[in-house]
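Hi L.,

You mentioned the student needs an example of a multi-chain input paired with its predicted structure. This one should do, with 342 residues in total across all chains.
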Amino acid sequence: MKYGIVAFPSKKIQDLANTYRKRYDPHYALITPHITLKDAFDADESQIGEISKSLEEISARFAPLQIHASRISSFYPTTNAIFFRVEPTPQLESVHTSLKENINLGAPKHVFAPHITIAQKLNASEHDDIFGQLRMVGVDETDVIDRIHLLYQLEDGSWTTYETYKLTGAE
Amino acid sequence: MKYGIVAFPSKKIQDLANTYRKRYDPHYALITPHITLKDAFDADESQIGEISKSLEEISARFAPLQIHASRISSFYPTTNAIFFRVEPTPQLESVHTSLKENINLGAPKHVFAPHITIAQKLNASEHDDIFGQLRMVGVDETDVIDRIHLLYQLEDGSWTTYETYKLTGAE
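Structure written out for the whole complex:
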């Protein structure tokens, strides 16, 4: 089964992201707007108890995530994905590293750049048009996210939450 | 904000339900296949701490839900929804009643008939055609669901999980 670990920002930020995703993101229907903390990885159902235990430990260590979606950016030319850039912080970096080290399944596909995707799978000219527009609109939202989610993927690509973990620590 | 309380069955049952929902359920993209335990209700964000506390108490009281999706049925003529009928049990009835009594927000729209919707918003002739076919195919799946989910709804109608509660009791 395929699993992933994400943080969902406030309803306000999710609603804002969806105004773009509805039009520009073919994954719109598969999952609500999120920050990926650990890329999708394969795990056996027998491993999930141990993974869940690691997540309990990690979430007991970290405080709620302070995030700032500061501008609209693009991963071009790596991919054509457009996203709300979430300012990297030592806290986010540290959560990401802890997840990577403690749940040693699946390799990170990219360097960790926290973000909320709002457009993807665009062709080159669509990307340039849409990014040109959205970059001017921009985004400036702060939020405090007090929990992280372990998700699993169904055969049609959609994601269901397996469990939530409250961030109750001090880091 | 609008909240709801559901149980997600196993990936196997969700995948099976989605083979139908993909074609026949316009809510397909808004939420993965589920059993509604408490209909959508409005609550203020300030009330959510108390609601969550009630859910912790209820989930500590009940054992994992033993379910049996026994046949494909329809709510016609009340609505044109077609669903996997989940056999009512004293346990499911008791969970539903506890949620209703302890979270006194929103009135139940219908008598509690546990089910997993696979088709809805059909016109009368579509309903008759599709129900005629699906009823013959049927369903016969059992599952043990060890957690329930509190969800909230975004402006576009999609649902995000707020929190999961593990069923750790004996009832």
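You could point out the following to them. Chain A is about 30% helix and 30% strand. The beta strands of chain A are 2-7, 35-42, 65-74, 82-86, 115-119, 141-145, 147-153, 159-166.

Best wishes,
N.
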